[in-house]
Structures are given as C-alpha cells and as structure tokens.
C-alpha cells in the first residue's frame, strides 16, 4: 500500500467511521479504478517502435509523392514546351500571312494613287489650258477695246 492509499484508508476509518475491512475494500476499489483509467489512457499511446514505423512509412509516402510530382512536372514542362513551339510557329505563319497581305494592299494602294494622281494631273492640265485660252481671249478683247478707244477699230 502506498502512502496515498494509507492516508485514504486512515480518513475512511477514522473520519468516516468505517470498519477496517470496509475502508480497505474502498481504498482497493479506488486504486483499481484509477489504475484502469491510467492504463486506458496510456493504452492508446503509441510505442517508440510504432512511431518509428509510422515515420518511415510517412517518409516512403512522401518520397513516392515527390517522385510522382517531379514526373508530373516534367510531363507538364514537355507539354508546355510543345504548346509554346506550336503557338510560336502559328504566330510566325500568321505574321507572314499578314505581311504578305499588307504588301499586296500597299501595292494596290500605290497603283490606285498613281492612277488618281495621273487623273488629277490630266484634269489640272485641262484647267490650265482652259485658263490660258481665257487669258488669250481677254487679251484679244482688251486689245480690241484699246483699238476702239483709239479709234482705229469701229
């Protein structure tokens, strides 16, 4: 019997006026109860061996997951590189197509501008001839008016 049990036994016997046998029975029942509770608490605790096994198992699982992730990342990298390469070649083709279309458009615009410039030049020349003819007519009219005023023409 421990010191704590002796003190309980003494309290039951002297303070609570229990017979010796009953006080001893009560102390033993309490001791058994607390021992069972203590064992139940420690029964659920893992041993060092179990912890070591769980640790190594977790390390293995982490290693497997790490390897799988590395493999997945490697695959994704390859796929991304392929996708980037495809997009790059598509963009180059699109740029080439746009460049050739723009060259054609610029060429068409140049031809149209040359035609329009030639038409504008022709119209300008026609107007200049018309102005020259009008100037000659005005000059002849002015000379005729001067000759009439001078009395040479009637």
List the helices and strands and how they pair.
Layout: H1 3-15, H2 20-43, H3 48-150
Helix pairs in contact: 1-2
Structure at a glance:
The protein has 154 residues and is mainly alpha-helical. It has helices at residues 3-15, 20-43, 48-150.
Task: Describe the 3D structure.
The protein has 154 residues and is an all-alpha fold. The protein is 91% helix and 0% strand. The chain contains three helices and no strands. α1 packs antiparallel against α2. The N and C termini lie far apart (169 Å).
Largest sheet composition: none
Poorly predicted tracts of residues: none
Instruction: Name the overall outline.
Output: rod-shaped
> Percent of residues in beta strands?
under 5%
Structural class: mainly alpha
Total of DSSP H or I helical runs spanning 4+ residues: 3
**Rg over CA atoms:** 59 Å
Number of strands: 0
Task: Supply database-style keywords.
0% strand; mainly alpha; rod-shaped
